[in-house]
Amino acid sequence: MRIVVCLLLLISARVMAVPDFSGEDGYRLWQRYDVIDAALPAATLKVVGHTETHNIIRDEFRRAFANRVGQSRGTLLVQKITPELQARFNLQADVTAQLGDEGFILKRHGNDILITAKTDIGLLYGSYHLLRLVFIQQPLDSLSVLQNPKIQRRLLNHWDDLDRHTERGYAGESIFDWHRLPLDKDQRYYDYARANASIGINGMVPINVNANALMLTPMYLQKVKALADIVRPYGIKMYLSIKFSSPQQLDGLDTSDPLDPQVQKWWKHKAAEIYQLIPDFGGFLVKANSEGQPGPGDYGRTHAEGANMLASALKPHGGVVFWRAFVYANNPAKERSLQAYDEFVPLDGKFMDNVILQVKNGPIDFQPREPFSPLFGATPETPLAMELQITQEYLGFSTHLAYLGTLFEEAMDADTHVKGPGSTVAKVVDGSLYNHKLTGIAGVANTGMQRNWTGHIFAQSNWYAFGRLAWDHTLSAKQIANEWIKQTLTVQPEAVRQVEAIMMPSREYVVEYMTPLGLHHLMDSGHHYGPGPWVDNLGRADWNPVYYHRADKQGIGLDRTASGTDAVSQYAPYWQQKFANPETTPKELLLWFHHLPWDYQLENGETLWNELVSYYYRGVDGVSDMQQRWQQVKPYIDANQFRQVEMALSIQQQEAQWWRDASVLYFQTISERPIPTGLPKPAGSLKEFQSRKFPYAPGQG
Ligand code: GCV
Q: Domain residues for 657?
């Protein structure tokens, strides 16, 4: 008998030990609709119209409320604007006149709520906005909202390859299964479109800017068409990355010279072929003469000549060219941060009016912190789109919790001062600074086939934040975090406060334990995983971390003032003066612009060395703080979501320490100064850190 009992106990102990991964796995993103038990804010839903988009709206309300009908006796009416509606809901003509093609109005009148717009897509955006208001628990009693997006083209750029590898992707294979398309229309495509539409994203580039010419073959264009047909009713347009050498690669032309009439003809035919299949095709995204990609420079032509050739092929169909300004190959003798500006500013005014330059937020490459790119504001005649990176290539992949709303906000709000104070990057991007009609913004996507889409529950917030800021760059990162938390995790007030306290400083922690005080590009080679400040043996000088930190016996940092590379001269006079002097340079960018002695005294009385080291420690402490706060919210978070984040945080803790210890030990060999008193000694040996290899790290280029 005793043996049987023991066995049973053993068995039940084993059963209990099996972890339970059921529950909210993250697939539903911020569209869970069950964080609170909300009801339709009216007794009846009336959607007037029968297009696919109208059906999506009906379906979305059904998903959100099932049969939970609200107390109010009124109607939730979703209908395109008419004079009768205007009169019934007291909408003044000057208000409705402000409605743009994607805009919407939400208006309460008595018991009724109206969602109205000029277009079906406006109705869809209005519906998603109302859902957001309900699920973040905003009162609807005196609802009166009019919104239009501030930026016209709001795109996700996927760096996904045709074989489903995702360059700089950390959430599994690409969601686009080109082999099975066009007939296999996976559920994910619809859910992807829903998620994007809910935050106002209206364009997608499904393949890598390191492009594959095959994409333009008839077989692949059929697949693109299938995707375009799926996403169209959600207001999403298809764009394609193209290979500049396609005429040669696909049809054996002798050249891809943009001034060659045969090449021009080839692109005109190709554009016509695409528009035949996809009448609302958005246009091309081009990475040319950058990191080995072909481009007009191969034929002695300028970027403007290359872009204009494509623009004239697209023009009759209404398409645009997003031409990337991420080029740094031209003159390796010139310091890398200078190169894009030097290349493109002289071309200002030479681009056709359906070309927009796509500029990364900073002058190097999506580092945890960079100053704004000096190109913003420097091309009055040429519209600029901003490219942000949602995927965390340099911010800990998908295992580090780094809320990028704060980074995106910093990038948008940066004041270029080109036309005096208030000349923000956001105003360059939304076209208001120089009166440009063509406006755009792109986010490098972090999606993949992992069940939770982004590899980390909190990485979903970066996708969300990108969309929300692209729609309205005046929203604050905090407000967006709050919205996301309430729709994704919990509405319990104390838990919301704790999660905000995790998210808001989280990107800063990453900056601190990876690249404090303006240091940058210190990651290991190729895969960009983990620290590699010692790397000095790569093919090009400007691929090596030592090129960027320049640590020597005297000090550390890259002198970009007039006595150094003079990158400061590319900024407006206001910033030239500030950046010229370490005392007026923002502390967080100090070593971006200056090479300073190890014993340089900072405003707080600390030496540069001591401050640098303490920042590395602060970052790691920040991760511990996030871990503690996460434990506190456990009762309010779904068990599956909780566990996913808990595990990722433990990886982050380990990796943050690795970054700190490897970096501090390495810089110490150069500074020859002790670890400041009160801080524990770094664990591990520099030699061991330097010997670490990760041949299978995900997302490699
Ligand atoms: C798509 C960085 C990344 C590359 C990326 C490139 C770009 O260099 O490491 O993977 O290539 O930026 O933006 O074109």
A: 510-558+595-691
Task: Answer whether 445 contacts ligand 1 (Cβ < 6 A).
Answer: no
Atom of ligand 1 nearest to the CA of 387: 13
According to the model, what pLDDT value does residue 544 have?
Answer: 96
Residues 31, 493: Cα–Cα separation, whole Å: 20
- Cα of 24 from ligand 1 centre, angstroms: 33
CATH number of the domain bearing residue 617: 3.90.1330.10
Positive or negative CA dihedral for 80, 118, 476, 155?
positive
Is residue 699 situated within a structural domain? Answer: no
Checking DSSP bridges between strand 555-556 and strand 596-597, what pairing results, if any?
Answer: antiparallel
Q: Which of 145-159, 324-338, 483-497, 530-544 has the lowest mean pLDDT?
A: 324-338
Q: Whose CA is closest to atom 11 on ligand 1?
A: 210
User: Is residue 365 among the annotated active site residues?
Assistant: yes
Residue 616 within any structural domain of the chain: yes
Element (H, E) at 629: helix 608-632
321 and 425 together in one domain: yes
**688 labelled catalytic:** no
Return the ∠ at Cα 229 (arms to 390 and 55), rounded to 5°.
95
Nearest to 270 by CA among 353, 213, 324: 213
**Shared domain check, 207 and 141:** no
pLDDT mean over 406-422: 98
Q: Is 209 in the pocket of ligand 1 (CB under 6 A)?
A: yes
CA distance 151 to 317: 21
- Ligand 1 centre and the CA of 257: distance in Å? 24
Q: Do 681 and 533 sit in the same domain of this protein? A: yes
Q: Is 161 in the pocket of ligand 1 (CB under 6 A)?
A: no
Q: What's the CA gap between 7 and 140, in Å, rounded?
A: 59
In the set 112, 365, 387, 524, the catalytic residue is 365
**Nearest alpha carbon to residue 177 among 162, 156, 167, 157:** 162
Q: Is 586 in the pocket of ligand 1 (CB under 6 A)?
A: no
Same domain for 554 and 519?
A: yes
Ligand 1 geometric centre to CA of 701 (Å): 7
Active site residue 393: yes
The CA 330 to ligand 1 mean position distance, Å, reads 16
Q: Measured from the CB, is residue 335 less than 6 Å from ligand 1?
A: no
Q: Which residue has the tokens 């969601």?
A: 175
> Is 525's C-beta closer than 6 angstroms to any atom of ligand 1?
no
The b/e string for 640-664 (b: 16+ C-beta within 10 A; e otherwise) is bbbbbbeebbeebbebbbbbbbbbb
Query: What is the domain-level CATH number for residue 103?
Result: 3.30.379.10
210 lines ligand 1 (CB under 6 A): yes
* Nearest CA, atom 9, ligand 1: 701
234 and 283 co-located in one domain: yes
Look at the chain and report how many structural domains it folds into.
Answer: 3
Query: Tens of pLDDT along 664-695?
Result: 999 999 999 999 999 999 999 999 999 999 99
d(CA 493, CA 540): 52
CA 82 to centroid of ligand 1, rounded, Å: 48
pLDDT at residue 9 greater than cutoff 90: no
Residue with the two structure tokens 């829903």: 194
* 105 and 231 share one domain: no
Alpha-carbon torsion (118, 124, 129, 135), positive or negative: positive
**CA end-to-end span of the chain:** 63
Q: How many CB atoms lie within 10 A of CB 677?
A: 6
E strand spans, 552-642: 555-556, 596-597
| Distance, CA of 21 to CA of 214 (rounded, Å) | 40
Contact present, 527 and 694 (Cβ < 8 Å): yes
Of 625, 117, 192, the closest CA to residue 401 belongs to 625
The pLDDT of residue 16 is above 80: no
